Amino acid sequence: MTQQPILITGGTGKVGTRIVSLLRRRNVAVRVGSRSGVPRFDWTDQDTWKRALAGSKTVFIVPHDGELLTRPFVQQARDLGVERVVLLSGRGVDVPGYAGDDNAAGRTHIDGEDAVRSCGLAWTILRPGWFAQNFSEGFFRDAVLAGEVRLPAGDGAVSFVDAEDIAAVAVAALTEDGHEGQTYELSGPRALTIAEAVELISEAVGRTVRYVRLTVEEFIAHLEGEGWPKADAVAYADAIAPIRHGMDEHLSDGVQRALGRPPRDFARFVKDAATAGAWRG
Hints:
Blueprint: E1 6-9, H1 14-25, E2 30-33, H2 49-53, E3 58-61, H3 70-79, E4 84-88, H4 104-117, E5 122-128, H5 141-146, E6 148-151, E7 157-158, H6 163-175, E8 182-186, E9 192-193, H7 194-205, E10 210-213, H8 216-225, H9 230-244, H10 254-259, H11 266-275
Parallel strand pairs: 1-2, 1-3, 3-4, 4-5, 5-8, 6-10
Antiparallel strand pairs: 7-9
Helix pairs in contact: 1-6, 3-4, 7-11, 8-9
Protein name: SDR family oxidoreductase
EC number: 1.6.5.2
Domain NAD(P)-binding: 10-176
């Protein structure tokens, strides 16, 4: 193994775990940046940053949503000898109206991208859209298991991107030349409505999963009824708004540009997730 580990912040998340796995398969030394990692890494405890960064020349950054911490982290990384950074940002960062003015995650990404571009290091930015894995590991999994995905998404379509592709692009940017200064917009190869997505899942698991269209007001009330604070319910509804407004249906070419192959289709994700038992109750 190389003696200089690549630091993967968010190393236990959807994308981070996949990056770590891919790098280890390539016999590349990896340091998993997490609060349970050794050494420990915690975005909210800047005293942990130096030890996590020590000896690393390359870093993958999953920013801490709602906080403007990417800039001081990148500055410290540069001072400690890091030479390359790859930032996980998000779709819509530079699209007017995509996120509300008070969107904390949006502010984090905007400031983070600026920090990375101006840091003087080799950099690459990844801007994925909605993860396909939100149905199997994230926001929507419990709803799929319950048989009803209730969202204020209207009939908007989404070009869901597979986290496997995000990780593969990240690994390429972390380990290969030719990705410096690139911003990769990442999506799947086609757009699906929520109804079409859950229909594919229904077919794969052999039971009905329905999409129930809610108004924004109904959705917020539904979440509050489940114990969500009002502010969090409103923030979740705001996150869904771009889907309803048709802002997530466009296709992006980042996977093709970075890897020289098409992105994985949602149907393949569903098949693999079902085989792995993602929707077993």
